[in-house]
Amino acid sequence: MQPLIPLQLAHDESGVGILVRRGNRPIGYLLKETEPGILLTCEILEEWIVESLKLKIVEEALSKELSRTECQPQMPSVSVAICTHDRPQRLIRCLRSLEMIRDHHGIEILVVDNAPRDGATASAAAQFPSVRYVVEKCAGLDFARNRAWLEAKGDWITYLDDDVIVDKWWFEGLQEAWKENQDASAFTGLVMPLELGSRAQILFERRDGFRRGFDKRRYGASLPGNPLYPCGAGIFGAGCNMAFRRDVLRELGGFDDALDTGASLPGGGDLDMFYRVIRAGGVLVYEPSYMVFHEHRHSETDLQRQYFSWGLGFMAFVGKHLHGSVEDKDRFRSLARWWARDQLRQLKASLRSRHPLPPRMILAEISGGIMGILGQYRRSCKRIERIRDKVS
Known about the structure:
Layout: E1 7-8, E2 15-22, E3 25-33, E4 39-40, H1 42-66, E5 78-84, H2 88-105, E6 108-114, H3 120-126, E7 132-136, H4 141-151, E8 156-161, E9 164-166, H5 170-180, E10 186-193, H6 199-206, E11 217-219, E12 241-245, H7 246-252, H8 269-279, E13 284-294, H9 300-324, H10 329-351, H11 359-391
Parallel strand pairs: 5-6, 5-8, 6-7, 10-13
Antiparallel strand pairs: 1-4, 2-3, 8-12, 9-13, 10-12, 11-13
């Protein structure tokens, strides 16, 4: 445990994001707006933390006291896959964050270069001799994800986006999740902001960003009180930090290539896989200590584009199963109705200045969702056939 230290804000800084840990474990997050240039004393910081997290601090302390230290089996072998497309500098930063973890734990690191336009990514990967570099010629994130599990040697494969860096104790968090849930098919982890340097990044975090909370969660066949489960797959985690047993991916036939195909359909592949894991009888576990830091969109234009892509990807996933799922067709129909009502509720709140996002962001997500539900998945299925023909 380290003591609090005063925090001096610069004259152009008007707030802070504070990640609170107990030991190595993340237990909470505070996003506070302040006066520019203020000195945040230890007393101020302590007051904020106690006010917001006193119950969580007590829970964690009791959990630590009551837990028993037992000899645990070694986690099976792990491969780390980074699927990337023409972003060599972000890739280098991500790989640097993995260097110490790789040396300590002996994990395999695999870079999948998705339809590269030049050799920049290959050159970036070559700076790390222990990294294995593979090219996937078919453009699309799920093509790259499938190439990764086909090439990987580990019993488990964990996927990272190239715009994240891993926490120092990221791998220990994955190990803890496995030791507590050795029957699990998949894990997801906490995603925190790498920086809060622009208004767009702050807006995104005010809406909770990629975070799914600081409590461990285990998802199985049912979730009492949630009639849409497991169709609302966004509750499970984020695709920029997820892990699967490789044999489970093989049994399920891998990711759906028609989702996450790039600009035309930039999402939905992770949601689809989470849903299929649960529907196949698997267990999915969310572990906060399995944590990464994500570089959020810097500009509001890019953030608006992201919300459009979220709506597009989510409703394309819904559309796929509305037409293909027998068991959950009614649930997906209800999910589509719930999503529309919830988006309208958020838009009304935003118009009254009672929502963290401006109306144009929510309208972008609604627009993407409308496009997604109106046949985007079927169009994407035809498009990937052309992609396969082009590279064959």
